[in-house]
From TrEMBL:
Catalytic activity: uridine + phosphate = alpha-D-ribose 1-phosphate + uracil
Cellular component aspect of the GO annotation: cytosol
Keyword Transferase: yes
Pfam families referenced in this protein's UniProt entry, alphabetically: PNP_UDP_1
Sections of the chain in a coiled coil: none
Transmembrane segments: none
Lineage top rank: taxon: Bacteria
E.C. numbers: 2.4.2.3
Record key words, sorted: Glycosyltransferase, Transferase
MF GO annotations: purine-nucleoside phosphorylase activity; uridine phosphorylase activity
Stated name of the protein: Uridine phosphorylase
InterPro entries for this protein: DeoD-type, Nucleoside_phosphorylase_d, Nucleoside_phosphorylase_sf
Record domain Nucleoside phosphorylase: where: 16-232
Species of the source: Propioniciclava tarda
Length: 237
């Protein structure tokens, strides 16, 4: 059975999924960490690979950029493919002065400027949070990573990469927000709506206030080792 955006047969995508935004990062991650990775869908260039991670079936599939895109793929995976757990492995801009480029952030909540939290329930703005069991697992998995700082805290999902409003950034930082990206809110909302589990783990690819260490486009595709190690071990925790 295919969906409008995935051509894999049911059973060809594992219940555990790693989901970067970038399709090229997805392919690299799949080939790096999965044994015997097989390409099972590539509609619109969004590749999905399935193999095993330390003997457990696991898939890697990209989400594309932005909340509408991640909502499409996550909904189809939870609703039609029996996926149980999705962990986003993305890049973000660091906001907090305590986070440096290349640090890892585990998103304990996702603030947003998107209208999505208002769409599911009339007259309510949902609190968008990851599943507790994945967050708990990430706490354990992060302990094995010694060489990269791992921060736990809220992040901000923005609908516009370039619309950075100083007053918004300042207010978010005062509330302890660690970084900005574009999908976690959509993934957390979709998991709640579809009865799945979700978490976002991010690598800071740039800093809003100090561009001196910012990653190049190539580094954003390839610098993911600590984040992916935590995410894969959390999926199987
Ligand atoms: O690196 P990925 O996972 O795509 O994540 C970040 O990068 C993209 C913007 O450049 C957005 O998708 C944002 O969320
Ligand atoms: O969405 C993103 C991703 C990386 N860096 C940013 O500033 N924003």
């Amino acid at each position: 059975m295919a969906t409008p955006h995935i051509t894999a047969d049911v059973g060809e995508i594992a219940p555990l999924v790693l989901m970067p935004g970038d399709p090229r990062r997805a392919e690299r991650i799949a080939k790096d960490i999965l044994d015997d990775p097989k390409l099972v869908s590539e509609v619109r260039g969004i590749g999905a690979w399935t193999g095993t991670y330390n003997g457990t079936p696991m898939s890697v599939m990209a989400s594309g950029m932005g909340i509408p895109s991640v909502c499409i793929y996550a909904t189809e995976l939870y609703r039609f493919y029996g996926v149980k757990r999705i962990i986003r492995v993305g890049t973000c801009g660091a906001m907090s002065p305590n986070v440096r480029v290349r640090d890892v952030i585990v998103a304990t909540a996702a603030h947003t400027n998107s209208s999505l939290p208002h769409l599911f329930v009339p007259d309510a703005s949902l609190s968008l949070a990851p599943s507790f069991s994945l967050l708990h697992g990430a706490g354990h998995a992060a302990k094995a990573v010694k060489d990269v700082p791992v921060h736990f805290g809220p992040i901000y999902s923005s609908d516009h990469f370039y619309l950075v409003k100083p007053a918004t950034t300042e207010g978010l930082i005062k509330l302890g927000t660690l970084g900005v990206e574009m999908e976690a809110t959509g993934l957390y909302a979709t998991a709640m709506a579809e009865g799945g589990e979700a978490l976002a783990i991010l690598t800071a690819s740039d800093h809003l206030f100090d561009p001196s260490q910012d990653m190049t486009a190539a580094e954003r595709e390839t610098s993911y080792q600590a984040m992916v190690e935590i995410a894969a071990n959390t999926l199987v925790f």
